[in-house]
Structures are given as structure tokens and as C-alpha cells.
Design goal:
Layout (H helix, E strand, L loop, with lengths): L4 E5 L5 H11 L3 E6 L2 H13 L4 E5 L5 H15 L4 E4 L14 H22 L8 E7 L10 H21 L5 E7 L11 H11 L10 E4 L2
Parallel strand pairs: 1-2, 1-4, 2-3, 4-5, 5-6, 6-7
Length: about 220
């Protein structure tokens, strides 16, 4: 038996890093996909110290071909993907009268479209019991007008999670987003480690009571 594997898309030092460490402590091997080589190497080193075997790839996740190839390489190498976690979003401080259509579509490509790419690439390696988790945000329900594209992304990615779960459920694979109703901070209930713990728990819901969205209010 091989160790279980989590693929973290949009890996970095925040929630995604905390979640990767949480899974590593539980005996998972980890594959990291992100855009910052230095951050990926640093996180990989931390995970290896926790006993995980770690692979990483640098890719712009809006590049469909590069992202698909990277996730397929991870899957072919390990023979399995047990959890796919999706973290990316774009913060662009522009209100709806400043934001261009091109900018909106570029941000949605990152915050929503890249989940579609990642899920499709991972699907051949996900089996019954597999999970897709997503870092969501209160911006889906209460967008800040000065960052108009972020609310669109978070509403869109949550909607896509509902559709992914309905599509994959017959094969025993489930999807869930955690809606973080607060601002990430270094202390208090919204630290990356606390949010990662909620994501961990969301992936381990009882199947009969599965929710595709889990709100976290601290």
C-alpha cells in the first residue's frame, strides 16, 4: 500500500501551506503546484521534515496545458490522488466601473477556471473516497466593491464545487468549499492553521450528511 497523496494547487505560505503541513502530519505525501519556486522549495523542506515525500512544480495555473501536465505527472508518479486542494484567487483593487472585462475574465480564469482544469486533470487518479476541497471566502456573499472581481471569483468557485460534487458523487468522490467568514490574521480564529483545520474536517464529513459548503465564522 502506498501512502495517501494530496495535491495542493496554488501552494504558498498561507492557508495552503498550513493545510499541506496538516496532511503531512497525518501521513500523506504531498504534491505542490504554484508560481513561486522559492516558496515551494521552502514549504517542501518543511513537509519533508514531517516525514512526507514531496514533489513540486512551478506553473501558472491559468495555463491549462501546463497545469494539466503537472497534475498528471504527479498522478502518474504516485498512482493516486486522494485529495485535491484548490487555493488560488486574484485580488485586484478595482471597482466595477474601473474593472475591464479583460481583467475580470483573467481573474475568473485564475480563481474559478483553474479549479476546472485541476479537477479534470486529477480525475483519472481520484477513486472512491477521494476529495476535492476549496478555500472559499465571505466575498462570495458580501463582496467589497473595491475588489469587484474577487466576489465574482468566490461565488463562481463555490458554484463550481456544487456541480463537481453532484458529478462525482456517484463514484464516491466528494467536493466541498469552506467559506471563511473573516479576515486571515496571525492570531485569533482566522489564522491559516485554524482555517486549515476546518478544511481538514470538511474533507472528513460523514458521507450521509455531506455539505458542499461549510461556513467558518471563527
Amino acid at each position: 500500500m502506498t501512502r495517501p497523496v494530496i495535491v495542493v494547487v496554488g501552494a504558498g505560505p498561507g492557508v495552503s501551506g498550513s493545510l499541506a503541513r496538516r496532511y503531512a502530519r497525518e501521513g500523506y505525501d504531498v504534491a505542490l503546484l504554484g508560481i513561486d519556486e522559492e516558496q515551494l522549495r521552502r514549504l517542501a523542506g518543511e513537509l519533508e521534515e514531517l516525514g512526507a515525500t514531496v514533489g513540486h512544480a512551478v506553473a501558472d495555473v491559468t495555463d491549462v496545458e501546463a497545469t494539466t501536465a503537472a497534475i498528471r505527472r504527479f498522478g502518474e508518479h504516485t498512482g493516486r490522488i486522494d485529495v485535491l486542494h484548490f487555493n488560488p484567487s486574484a485580488f485586484r483593487e478595482k471597482d466595477p466601473l474601473e474593472l475591464t472585462v479583460e481583467e475580470l475574465l483573467a481573474d475568473v480564469a485564475l480563481g474559478v477556471g483553474a479549479l476546472l482544469t485541476s479537477a479534470q486533470a486529477a480525475r483519472p487518479y481520484l477513486t472512491a473516497g477521494g476529495r476535492i476541497t476549496v478555500t472559499g471566502s465571505m466575498a462570495a456573499d458580501k463582496p467589497w466593491h473595491r475588489a469587484a472581481s474577487l466576489g465574482v471569483q468566490k461565488a463562481g468557485v463555490r458554484n463550481l464545487v456544487h456541480s463537481l460534487d453532484a458529478t462525482l458523487r456517484p463514484d464516491g468522490i466528494r467536493a466541498v468549499s469552506v467559506t471563511v467568514r473573516g479576515t486571515l490574521a496571525s492570531e485569533g480564529p482566522f489564522t491559516p492553521d485554524r482555517v486549515a483545520e476546518v478544511l481538514w474536517d470538511a474533507a472528513r464529513q460523514v458521507e450521509a450528511d455531506w455539505q458542499t459548503e461549510v461556513p467558518y465564522s471563527g
